[in-house]
Amino acid sequence: TYNEKLSYRVHYGFINAANIKMQVGSKPLTVNGRKTYYIKAEGKTLSTFDWMFKVRDKFETYLDQDALIPQKFIKAVQEDNYKDHDLVYFKHDKKSLYSSKVKGNMKMPQYTQDIISALYYARNLDFASAKIGQEYPLNIYLDKEIYNLKFKYAGKQIIKTDVGKVKCIKLVPKLVVDRVFKNEDDMTVWITDDKNKIPVRVKAKIAVGSLKVDLTSYSNLRHPFSSKVKK
Fold it and tell me: What tens digit of pLDDT does each residue of 20-39 get?
């Protein structure tokens, strides 16, 4: 919903390394003739961690209000000396996209997501009758590639968090095995077991250690945070 704000802290091993903020804009924006939610996600390492690996990442997506597919995506990444930028327009009716990294248009499966829109799309799925191991397919564009991915439902769990004890739905995304991930199931995501389906925790094994992302604050949710366990 408009103005929703979610904040997270990122642990690298035992070190408090970074903060992530995700925010939905205050009003609809029109892209490709469609009304969209403007969503911004920013990741920034703490000054105490910058000496080791400095990150200033920003992702923006314009998510179609009705179809829950991206109309536009912007990536601006700075990680130590590495910088990268991409501007993408999705043409779902033509099964193609324009990327500032690619000459001409690039073919894609219809309703392909970007890495931020995919999260908000998944939050709108109904897991009420899901069975453990049930899989959900997802096509995602990133860096001139289309990844035919999926994630599976792994049951329910109550976890302790910075915002209290929370009833969660547990999801396991299928990852791309590369220089970051050694196995396709090296990440687990916990989302609230209510109508909001906020990501509460992400744990991942990576080639050089482990990452843990935890929700620290939230505001302007569409629905009551009813999955929080009352004392």
Answer: 999 999 999 999 999 999 99
